[in-house]
Write a structure and sequence with these properties.
Layout: E1 4-9, E2 13-14, E3 20-21, H1 27-39, E4 45-48, H2 52-66, H3 69-73, H4 75-80, E5 84-87, H5 90-101, E6 106-109, H6 121-130, E7 135-140, H7 147-152, E8 155-156, H8 171-183
Parallel strand pairs: 1-4, 1-7, 4-5, 6-7, 6-8
Antiparallel strand pairs: 2-3
């Protein structure tokens, strides 16, 4: 049984003015994070948005790669899209995981501007490998997860830090780095 799940939240997240908003789904995030999820053995990659039109867009894109022309044109992309699910809320993703595993998922917030205490990447890696319960890693779009999400998460993962002060990675880059650090081969 896979014990690692990820969710890309489009709500509740912040905009640049620190207002809680719902952000738009982007095609690149869907493709790149689905491929990273498959590469690192993620059980399911949830896209969370309360906006029905955005969920429908994700379903159309996924259908193209799962059973449309894209499935024949690029079979490896078809395989990566197997991990993808789109849901209207974080609670629905958590319920889906609980239904599949018979356990409440441990939620872990990520973000460049979160405050600690933090789990180190090595601690997160060990938790995933040694514990039975599923872990759901939360990634935020826009300007990051709203405080209400970070506050209610079971843990916060240490931020990805680069070699200099600039710190504004795309969420798809941050997700790939986090997955490599917590689920990649040593």
């Amino acid at each position: 049984m896979c014990r690692l799940y990820i969710a890309l939240l489009h709500y509740p997240v912040y905009n640049r003015r620190k207002e809680v908003v719902a952000t738009a789904v982007t095609n690149l995030d869907i493709h790149d994070i689905a491929r990273a999820a498959m590469t690192f053995g993620v059980g399911r990659f949830y896209i969370v948005t309360p906006v029905e039109e955005q969920r429908e867009l994700v379903r159309r894109i996924a259908d193209h790669w799962r059973k449309g022309f894209g499935s024949r044109y690029n079979p490896s992309r078809k395989e990566a899209f197997r991990t993808l699910a789109v849901v209207p809320s974080l609670e629905e993703a958590q319920g889906d995981i609980a239904g599949e595993t018979n356990m409440r998922p441990v939620t872990v917030a990520t973000g460049a501007s979160l405050n600690g205490p933090f789990l180190r990447f090595s601690e997160m890696r060990e938790r995933i490998r040694s514990r039975e319960e599923p872990h759901l890693i939360l990634f935020g779009t826009g300007w990051g997860l709203a405080d209400e999400v970070a506050r209610t998460a079971d843990h916060r993962l240490e931020p990805v830090r680069g070699a200099c002060e600039y710190n504004h990675l795309s969420v798809r880059s941050a997700a790939a780095i986090v997955l490599d650090r917590i689920a990649g081969r040593e």
